[in-house]
């Protein structure tokens, strides 16, 4: 038979009941595996941060964001400092969730699928008089944590008391807080404040304090039930047009992309300490999944190769200029001018000198969602909550998720209640003369019932082989075909 197993003789001697049971088990295993390829489902997103992800907090608190913000997608100001959608909007779209309502927006808000606490101008460090006088927002990360805590507590109370579905349908479900995705994107304003108020070497000494405050915020969220964290590092602040104009670099302090070298080094030092802290938190918070996302690399790549990706000069903003802010008026040489937008925002990276255009946000998000810039390298759709259980003691088969390898299989003979552990360390299931062929040879002489168990395993292994060939393609060409 040239090494090929003939199952016909053994199958004929097995009762129909056992056959049906074995086939059913095979199908269940395959269905479970195939289901994992679709990723996990997050019922909600809770976002904390600054203007990079603010979808209405500052607009609801200090006055509406001015036109022409929102012109490209919403057709009106929509609480975002951009011509359209932000990275958080595209993340929600990827997870098939609606755009997040700002927690502070009292008009027509819906928190069923999460809430956005991010506020433009906010910092990691608690706000004080100096921060506020410099123009930064008092809604610091600490305040945003208090807002989340209040949302959770009041939602739980209303769910227990309210009989009207019109109320509960717009609230988070209490049991879903631990199953939701928690995104943090902050730190840029802390760096900006340091640039404004101190010399760089002095501010570097304060970075550990900011990182410790960030870590404390993550721990508080964990105590409130958060389990999956998607953490963005900070972007290349030395590449922002506003920073370059207001703090002209000294000779020799410009990198190959045209950015202020020392300011980007400041951001890189912040990111290094942030990544180290996230690694420490992984060991400190049992059951938590923390994903560090290198958004700095994505943004710097876009800025340094703008022409390659179809964008114009990255240091020229689309809306407003150094004479007048976007959406505002100013008198220049005796003439009142308005900070209008450019003719084609989709060709610009910078919207207003600080924030990114929708086109740039879309480009960046397509570089981070697939996990290639994350640690661990998980796509956002696969960043599922960890399952804490001892698989060996429970006798379960650890089915691999998409893109991961199987470390071992515990093959269970359901009929004679015996099992054997098959090592797969460093191997992937493959067809032909590979590992499956060796399994066939090793198990050819087993009894008929165990053969059916092997057949069930083969179905799972073959599914793994098929799934290993599936790939995501999130805009790898660099084009901007926006989703509706």
From TrEMBL:
InterPro entries in the record: GDSL (IPR001087), SGNH_hydro_sf (IPR036514), SGNH_plant_lipase-like (IPR035669)
Record keywords: Glycoprotein, Hydrolase, Membrane, Signal, Transmembrane, Transmembrane helix
CDD domains per record: SGNH_plant_lipase_like
Example of a GO MF term: hydrolase activity, acting on ester bonds
Gene3D superfamilies noted in UniProt: SGNH hydrolase
Domain of life: Eukaryota
Transmembrane regions listed in the UniProt entry: 448-467
Keyword Transmembrane listed: yes
Signal peptide (UniProt feature, chain positions): 1-35
SUPFAM superfamilies: SGNH hydrolase
Family listed: Belongs to the 'GDSL' lipolytic enzyme family.
Protein name (database record): Uncharacterized protein
């Amino acid at each position: 038979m040239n090494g090929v197993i003939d199952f016909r003789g053994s199958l004929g001697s097995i009762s129909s009941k056992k056959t049906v049971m074995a086939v059913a088990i095979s199908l269940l295993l395959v269905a479970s595996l195939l289901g994992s390829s679709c990723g996990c489902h997050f019922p909600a997103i809770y976002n904390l941060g600054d203007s990079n992800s603010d979808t209405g907090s500052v607009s609801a608190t200090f006055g509406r964001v001015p036109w022409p913000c929102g012109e490209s997608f919403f057709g009106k100001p929509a609480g975002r400092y951009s011509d359209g959608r932000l990275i958080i909007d595209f993340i929600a779209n990827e997870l098939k969730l609606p755009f997040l309502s700002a927690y502070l927006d009292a008009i027509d808000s819906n928190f069923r699928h999460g809430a956005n606490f991010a506020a433009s101008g906010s910092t990691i460090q608690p706000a004080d008089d100096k921060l506020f006088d410099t123009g930064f927002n008092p809604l610091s990360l600490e305040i945003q944590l208090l807002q989340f805590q209040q949302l959770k507590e009041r939602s739980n109370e209303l769910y227990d008391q309210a009989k009207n579905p019109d109320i509960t349908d717009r609230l988070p479900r209490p049991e879903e807080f631990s199953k939701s995705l928690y995104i943090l994107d902050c730190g840029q304003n802390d760096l900006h404040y340091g640039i404004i108020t101190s010399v760089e070497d002095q501010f570097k000494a304060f970075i550990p304090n900011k990182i410790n405050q960030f870590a404390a915020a993550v721990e508080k969220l964990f105590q409130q039930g958060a389990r999956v964290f998607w953490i963005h590092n900070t972007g290349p602040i030395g590449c922002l047009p506003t920073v370059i104009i207001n703090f002209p670099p000294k000779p020799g302090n410009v990198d190959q992309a045209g950015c202020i070298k020392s300011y980007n080094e400041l951001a890189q030092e912040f990111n290094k300490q942030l990544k180290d802290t996230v690694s420490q938190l992984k060991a400190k918070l049992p059951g938590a999944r923390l994903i560090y996302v290198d958004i700095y690399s994505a943004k710097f790549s876009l800025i340094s190769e703008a022409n390659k990706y179809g964008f114009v000069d990255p240091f020229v903003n689309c809306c407003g200029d150094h004479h007048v802010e976007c959406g505002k008026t100013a008198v220049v040489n005796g003439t009142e001018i308005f900070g209008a937008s450019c003719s084609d925002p989709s060709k610009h990276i910078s919207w207003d000198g600080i924030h990114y255009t929708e086109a740039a946000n879309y480009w960046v998000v397509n570089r981070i969602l697939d996990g290639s810039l994350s640690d661990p390298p998980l796509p956002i759709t696969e960043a599922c909550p960890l399952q804490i259980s001892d698989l060996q003691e429970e006798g379960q088969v650890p089915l691999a998720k998409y893109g991961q390898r199987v470390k071992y299989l515990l093959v269970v003979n359901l009929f004679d209640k015996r099992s054997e552990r098959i090592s797969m360390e460093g191997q992937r299931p493959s067809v032909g003369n590979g590992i499956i062929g060796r399994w066939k040879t090793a198990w050819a002489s087993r009894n008929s019932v165990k053969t059916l168990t092997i057949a069930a395993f083969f179905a799972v292994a073959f599914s793994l082989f098929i799934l290993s060939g599936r790939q995501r393609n999130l805009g790898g060409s660099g084009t901007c075909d926006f989703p509706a």
